[in-house]
Amino acid sequence: MDTAVRKKTVYFEVLRVCAVLAVIFIHTGDGGYSLFTQRPFGGTLYFADLALSIFSRFCVPMFFAISGALLLHRDEPLKDVWKRVLRIVLVLFVISLLYWFEALSQNHGTFSFRAFFHKTYYDQARYHLWYLYSYIAFLITLPVLRPLAKNLEDRTFLYLIALEILFDGIIPILDFRINVGEFPLNPNAIPSWMFEQIFFCPLIGYYLHRRLKYEHAKKALLPLWAANLLGLAACCYMTWFKSRIFGVRGDEAPADFHFCFAALNCITLFLTARVLFERAQLPAKVEALLTGLGGTVFGVYLFHMYFLRRPWIEAIWFGLTRMGVSPMLAVTLEVLAIFAVSCVPAFILKQIPGIRKLL
Question: Is the pTM of this model over 0.85?
Fold first, then answer.
């Protein structure tokens, strides 16, 4: 493998690891993602924890962006696309079955294939598995997205990004801030289909990786970070503002504005990783470590929910906070512990030839 390919692989692995850590953090609930709801309303800690929670929402857009960067340039026959689809369907079936049996063992229930089928068909066995359903939908659309990505002009990609920021971020914020959401923009005037994660994010990932020159990416970083931080501040302010207007506190705090600039955050982090790692001369061992960790990310995503609610994992947070460690630092260490233990089954399964291709 040549150096350029190796560097590109490394920056994708770094992004994958960061994204799955954000996924785990989002699933920590009251002890992490929703910690801001337990802080004094409007205080410094409230906004600091809220900012971290909103920032973490880059994770799912990032996974789709990476998939677009790696898959949309390829030319594959339709049968190969459906092989990809069937692979994820098989993974979904197996992991859903495992979580189903775990739930039955906890509730002392009996297995019913009919109930299992109904649950996995119209819902999901565990709430984090919704992503696999969306990824299946993305794979099915590959034959449509590929020619579209290859034939769009660079300025059209920029136009798409501008529209997403306008309709998913700026307009919803202005609508609520000016008239408290009483007179929102008519939804029929919003091209919302363009901003679906399985459509927008893969196209943008393709553009950022395949089309945008490295030099241009480097120049764009400073204005992107300025816009990204401004968007983050706006989301924090609007969450506080809506909570204050409606008198909602605690667990019922609104999360409407957590996603407004998630795509902008994703773009900023994507290009930051590219600039930092694509041409960096990393030691071979560091590259191998990052590549190895990145290779376990899919397995970590699948298994982390099993470890998340283990008593000994929860004891990490409680133990650290009782020792005087700040709750956010404690949950950070908890997230790293969950990532580490979830890597173990992912790594072991990847050593098995038949299962390796699934993970």
Answer: yes
